[in-house]
Amino acid sequence: MKHPLVKSAEDKMNKTVEKISEELRKMRTGRPSPAILEEIKVDYYGAPTPINQLATVSISEDRALVIKPWDKSVLSAIEKAIFASDLGLTPQNDGNVIRIIFPTPTTEQRQKWVKKAKEIAEQGKIAIRNIRRDVLKELKDLVKNGKISEDDEKRLEKEIQDLTDKKIEEIDKLFEKKEKEIMEV
């Protein structure tokens, strides 16, 4: 059975990896993805509502996202919300659907996106190391107060370091996958 300190560290590290995975998933790449619209809220009868609750979002063969609202009266509100977002997308409203065309990104754009993804991954690694540092401090306090032996401390330190290495490796893999996705033409 895992020591409560190790279990607590693992839970926190898992949440960090999950958050980084989510941030990378929502990141813009050269390919259209409905996930990039998840953060955009539309004012629908006074309530901020996600686009995917107002419309179907699909990807067409011509590198475009197609947003087809169930209620056509929200077309202009969706269009305004997309323009107002900081994603740099240009929606085209034809009265029935909104199309967002994703031109093939330049190498420079791709490199910027990779750099941004690397920053996100690095933030995750820093958070994991901070969790490790805090847990090791708690461990030292337990030894100092005579609650656990020095042998247990060494064993738990190794468990925490192994866990840290594993979680950092997971973040590296998430970044590598995202980098490959961004650089793919």
TrEMBL record:
<keyword id="KW-0175">Coiled coil</keyword>
<keyword id="KW-0963">Cytoplasm</keyword>
<dbReference type="GO" id="GO:0006415">
    <property type="term" value="P:translational termination"/>
</dbReference>
<keyword id="KW-0648">Protein biosynthesis</keyword>
<dbReference type="Pfam" id="PF01765">
    <property type="entry name" value="RRF"/>
</dbReference>
<dbReference type="InterPro" id="IPR036191">
    <property type="entry name" value="RRF_sf"/>
</dbReference>
<feature type="domain" description="Ribosome recycling factor">
    <location>
        <begin position="21"/>
        <end position="183"/>
    </location>
</feature>
<feature type="coiled-coil region">
    <location>
        <begin position="146"/>
        <end position="173"/>
    </location>
</feature>
<comment type="similarity">
    <text>Belongs to the RRF family.</text>
</comment>
<protein>
    <recommendedName>
        <fullName>Ribosome-recycling factor</fullName>
    </recommendedName>
</protein>
<dbReference type="GO" id="GO:0043023">
    <property type="term" value="F:ribosomal large subunit binding"/>
</dbReference>
<dbReference type="GO" id="GO:0005737">
    <property type="term" value="C:cytoplasm"/>
</dbReference>
<dbReference type="InterPro" id="IPR002661">
    <property type="entry name" value="Ribosome_recyc_fac"/>
</dbReference>
<dbReference type="InterPro" id="IPR023584">
    <property type="entry name" value="Ribosome_recyc_fac_dom"/>
</dbReference>
<comment type="function">
    <text>Responsible for the release of ribosomes from messenger RNA at the termination of protein biosynthesis. May increase the efficiency of translation by recycling ribosomes from one round of translation to another.</text>
</comment>
